[in-house]
Amino acid sequence: MLNTAWLKIMGIIDGSVFARFVTRVMDFIGRFAGGSVIIRALRRDAAALTAESRVCLLVSAVFAAFRSFRDKYGKRLWGGSFLVSFLRALPGKLGGLSARGLGLGIIAGCAVFLAVSREVSPFLGIIALSGAACFLSGENLYELCAESGFSRFIFRFFDAAGLAKKETAERTSPLYAVVYGVYGGLAFALLPAKFALAAFFGPPLALLAAAYPLFGLLGLLFAAPFIPTMTVAAGLIAVGAAFFLKLLTDPAYSAKSDATGVFVAVYILITLFRGVTSLTPRSSVKIALLTSLFMTACFLFTSLVDTAKKAELAVFAFSSSALLTGLYGLYQKYSGKVDMTWVDKEIFDGLRLRVFSVFANPNVFGEYLLLAIPISVIGLIISRRVIAKLYYAGVCAVLLLNLALTYSRGCYLALVLGVFVFTLMMERRLIAVAAAGVFLLPALLPADITARFASITNLADSSTSYRIFIYQGTIRILERFWLLGLGQGIEAFNKVYPLYGFNAVSAPHSHNLFLQVFVETGVFGFAAFLGVLFCYFKTLLPAFGRAGARGKAVLAALTAMMCAFVLQGMFDYSFYNYKVFMLFFAAAGFAAAFGGEAGRLR
Questions:
Q1: How confident is the model at residue 40 (pLDDT cuts 50, 70, 90)?
Q2: In 91, 292, 333, 518, which residue has its Cα 20 to 30 A from 439's Cα atom?
């Protein structure tokens, strides 16, 4: 019935004069673009580029040599070490802990907290009662986790009931739980809540990440928006170290890279070089080290997220994290908080609030949403269960509402482009409907959003005129420093910008992603960054032709995501927030994760 209705709708669309006109225009554009050098290069399979590139061959040779060394000497040198043995035994020790021992640990922790702090609260009573309930159970943690309602929900959510099977676990002494419970009680009694939570949950989470680097990577992907930048950096170092240890000791792990990763590596080398040789090396070196570290998220993602099921878990982690940011954004909207810092009050006197969630700036939040919305759409596409589809549909709705409430005009335009690209790749006949919908938007959207979007070309808006002056000043800098750039960071930019800027406008950056990359790293860094984008699309587009229906939709969403993010980069420096910078390179890893699996998604 649905297919019949769909065919009738498409028949009506195809028969309209407007649709025929739009189709002919798109066919003309397609024929014109299809013969270009760039499009022909993008259509060539990325594997061919990898096979032909000397750099890629060198990388492959290094990986092969490393695997050979690991297989020959790894077990002898590291296989019997205490650390490796401990990490291998850790899952069994955790799973073998009895619920009774866990209950004793919880009760001991509550008793120590009460004795030291002498504070009684209902929350403490609930924790103590949960410890008593665990004490009455005779099962171990593996059995409790596999049979819990939450676990069954997760297994059903991912249609992976086979993961719920019980595993054999060694019996673990309850003394470990009691000691850790005492430690936890002292931490919460003596430290502020934030530090106590870090002290209590940090060690076990770090150990799990060491035992399972994928767990650490996905946990970092989930937590990144909510934790300090340097904590994200420390977590990425820990995950990278754990993965390297696995490479040395576990044949099941291997380092992987694609053409995108090669250009990321080149971009890292140029970034580090310009950090050392910057006009302000003291500050630029620190920033170069931090950004280079965050770019390694692409390599970790490519190596660890190498199956469709792991990619699905990554989508879930990213989308769930974005949902929390969106819920907090809605709280900002409806709690009465007002922030007019980011609004020209003379032009937008009716605009009272722009949400920014946990990102301190509505434009940065919008850039994050341009990554999160397509990833959530991918979750909607690949999910087979109704409950999962409803979840991702809800996430998309919350995130789209938040994007509207950022009132970021560049993000609005980027979203329109993303929808256009997705529609163009999936169903070109709907372009006519989308084009007609653009004309209807002013009647459907709230007046403040329509006014905000319509002001894009208003040069009287201080935000618009401010950017134009900065673009002009940055271009003047490039006329002098085009070869090597200035180096990364606000200090390097501000050391030169006042000499070339217009109208006494001060700025921490150029408010344009491409101009900023060019002015910081010169023509070589700019070329490497363009190479990253080129190879990203080159990974997706050839795979699109051989993918099934769901695979095509996933690849179209990833293509639309990057197109939207790149367009927003024309209006702002999207990498100004380091966490968004890291999430961008992690999201770029989705191309490698889904590029090889897309053909299996039917």
A1: low
A2: 333
Find the mean pLDDT for residues 533-542: 86
Residues in the chain: 602
Handedness of CA 234, 236, 237, 239 (dihedral sign): positive
The alpha carbon of residue 213 and the mean position of all alpha carbons in its chain are separated, in whole angstroms, by: 17
The model's confidence at residue 436, banded by pLDDT at 50, 70 and 90, is: low
Q: What is the pLDDT of residue 166?
A: 46
**CA–CA separation, 525 and 539 (whole Å):** 21
Tokens encoding 325: 């940011």
Identify the DSSP state of 224.
G
The phi, psi pair for 346, rounded to 5°, reads -70, -35
Within 13 Å, how many C-alpha atoms sit on residue 417's CB side? Answer: 20
For the chain, the helix, strand and coil percentages under 3-state DSSP, each to the nearest 5? 80, 0, 20
- What pLDDT score was predicted for residue 156? 56
Q: What's the first-to-final CA gap in the chain, in angstroms?
A: 21
3-state secondary structure of 353: strand
Distance CA 218, CA 419 (A): 27
According to the model, what pLDDT value does residue 559 have?
A: 92
Amino acid letter at 429? R
Assign 14 a pLDDT band (cuts: 50, 70, 90). Answer: low
Residue 504: count of CB within 10 angstroms of its CB: 7
Q: How many CA atoms lie within 13 A of 79 on its CB side?
A: 9
What pLDDT digit, counting tens, does each position of 237-260 carry?
Answer: 989 988 888 887 777 777 777 778
Q: What is the pLDDT of residues 129-158, one digit of tens each?
A: 888 887 777 666 666 565 555 555 555 555
Indicate the SS3 state at residue 340.
coil
CA-based torsion, 301, 302, 303, 307: positive or negative: positive
Q: Which two tokens stand for residue 333?
A: 């909207």
Q: Are 402 and 355 in contact (CB under 8 A)?
A: yes
User: How far is C-alpha 150 from the chain's CA centre?
Assistant: 25
Q: Quick one: tokens of 296?
A: 């390694």
d(CA 387, CA 385): 6
d(CA 147, CA 134): 14
CA 275 to chain centre: 25
**Which amino acid, one-letter code, is at 246?**
K
Query: What distance in Å separates the CA atoms of residue 119 and residue 217, rounded to the nearest whole number?
Result: 37
**Distance, CA of 463 to CA of 366 (rounded, Å):** 16
Got the DSSP string for 375-386?
HHHHHHHH--SH
Instruction: Kindly report the backbone phi and psi dihedral angles of residue 389, in degrees, each rounded to the nearest multiple of 5, phi listed first.
Output: -65, -40
Residue 120 structure tokens = 């009684």
Q: Where are the alpha helices (DSSP H) in 482-577?
A: 490-500, 513-546, 549-568
- In angstroms, the CA 254 to CA 260 distance is 18
Token pair 């982690």 is found at 317
By C-alpha distance, which of 520, 593, 546 is closest to 260? 593
- The whole-angstrom separation of Cα 475 and Cα 200 is 51
